[in-house]
Each structure stands twice: as structure tokens, then as C-alpha cells.
Design brief:
By secondary structure, this protein is an alpha+beta fold. It has one domain. It is 44% helix and 15% strand. It contains five helices and three strands; from the N terminus they run αβββαααα. A three-stranded antiparallel sheet has the order 1-2-3, with helices on one face. Helix 1 runs parallel beside helix 3. The chain is globular and about 55 Å long. It starts with 13 loop residues before the first helix and ends in a 13-residue tail after the last helix. The relative contact order is 0.13.
């Protein structure tokens, strides 16, 4: 059975979702809000509690095979492929809005903290995000087999 993606059939225009995200960020104390696209990614930037955040999400490649054919394998026209791509982009934006809302719900309810929810995307003084600095170390740790025990508990010997 094919996997159903969140908001796969949404008709909400990207501009409306972008405005919704901006309202969510503003409502929760963010300022200096910026949106952009670069190299196939959408970027949402903002400042909150003296922290700069850069939230980056990959957009689907318009030339991907998924858009050239229907789920049953029939070839799509260029116009149909473009529509399928636009639908996927709308779905990504709706997913981003949901994630951002969920992060602030967790923070507001005390389930989590700003740093826990946005930490990976916090911009450091060198201009890089925490995630871009930490991800290689995580990969190295697992590749080398030097991984701490689950829950920090050493097995009994």
C-alpha cells in the first residue's frame, strides 16, 4: 500500500501557509522573520529570545520521476507533472506549518523548551546552525561504533 503524505490533497496556496507560519511565529514572540528559497530548499529565519533560527526544508525536485508518472505508472503531460509538483510543494508547506505549530505547543505547555525544539536550527556566531556542526559528529560516532550506551546506563559485567 502506498504511503499517504500529510496534506497530500491540500488546496491551500503556499502564500496562505507562509502567512500562517509568519502569524504563528509572531504570536509566539519571534521577530526579524524572513522567508526564502535557495538551492531547492525553503528557508524560514527568525529571531526569538535573542536566538537566531534558520529552519531549512528541502523542496521536491520538479524533475523527479514521481511527477512524470501517475501512481499507476501512466505518463503525465508536462502540465500535469507541473501540477503534481505544485501539489507536493503545497504539502511540504502545510507540513512545515504543522511542525512549527507543534513546536510552540510543546514549548507553551511546558513539555519542551525552546532550545530542545529549535536547537538544531539555532544559528551560531560562525553563521552555521547547531545541526550542521553536530550532524557530522553523530555520523562519525555511529560509523566508528563509539556510541554511548542507551539511557547512559552501562551494562553489568
Amino acid at each position: 500500500m502506498a504511503e499517504k503524505k500529510y496534506a497530500a490533497t491540500t488546496t491551500t496556496p503556499v502564500g496562505n501557509t507562509r502567512n500562517e507560519i509568519e502569524s504563528l511565529l509572531t504570536k509566539h514572540g519571534a521577530d526579524d522573520i524572513a522567508f526564502g528559497t535557495i538551492q531547492g530548499h525553503v528557508v524560514v529565519g527568525f529571531t526569538h529570545s535573542s536566538r537566531q533560527v534558520r529552519y531549512v526544508v528541502a523542496l521536491p525536485d520538479p524533475g523527479a520521476a514521481d511527477f512524470a508518472r501517475t501512481p499507476t505508472g501512466l505518463r503525465r503531460s508536462a502540465n500535469e507533472a507541473a501540477k503534481a509538483h505544485q501539489q507536493a510543494v503545497r504539502s511540504i508547506w502545510r507540513s512545515m506549518a504543522l511542525v512549527i505549530k507543534a513546536k510552540f505547543v510543546a514549548i507553551d505547555s511546558g513539555v519542551s523548551s525552546f532550545e530542545a525544539e529549535w536547537g538544531w536550527s539555532i544559528v551560531l556566531p560562525n553563521g552555521r546552525t547547531v545541526g550542521s556542526m553536530v550532524a557530522p559528529a553523530i555520523e562519525d560516532s555511529y560509523s566508528s561504533g563509539h556510541v554511548p550506551p542507551m539511557l547512559g546506563i552501562e551494562p553489568q559485567r
